[in-house]
Amino acid sequence: MSRSPEEPPFTYAEVGATRGEFPPGYHRFHVRRRLGSGRELFEQVATEILTYRMQRGTGIFESADTPVAAPGTLLTVRLGIGPLALVAPCRVVYVLDEPDRRGFAYGTLPGHPEVGEELFAVEYDPADDAVYGVVSAFSRPGAWYIRLGGPVARLVQRWMAERYLAAVRPPGRESPAR
Length: 178
Hints:
The protein is of the alpha+beta class. The chain has one domain (24-168): 2-Layer Sandwich (Alpha-D-Glucose-1,6-Bisphosphate, Chain A, domain 4). 24% of the residues lie in helices and 37% in strands. It has helices spanning 39-50, 53-58, 144-168; strands at residues 27-37, 61-64, 74-79, 86-98, 101-108, 114-125, 130-141. It has a 7-stranded antiparallel sheet with strand order 1-7-6-5-4-3-2. The mean pLDDT is 87. It comes from Nocardia aurantia. It holds the Pfam family DUF1990.
């Protein structure tokens, strides 16, 4: 992905690696939950993900310079509460627009407390009509206080992944692990 000279660089070299095999040297996770079934649900969740519903639904969304995720979009999330909140800048790396898979990935920029990339997606399985929400990431601490948090910081990441998926899950739907 090319960038203009005034855009800040990503804080990691493996830009786009959430598309395939995650790079070594990072904490990695992949959470996939069934959201329900049907092509209509898939399309609805795809639209919600691409308009930042996962971030808005968890209360961490601060701003984005486009209403729909697009490569190069600058996105800011706010982690924490009140004066203790951290502003975490990101940039959309790529957008998935496949017949049975949609979403986007963003990567960290200078000032983000972590270093890495996160993918937010929805998948449709035509074999059984199932719709799955997916959050995958690779990251490592980018700030001393995240390093200090160690395993707790990783637990918070997984907890946030579950909250992202809950933000797009239709009301009353179960979410069996898979």
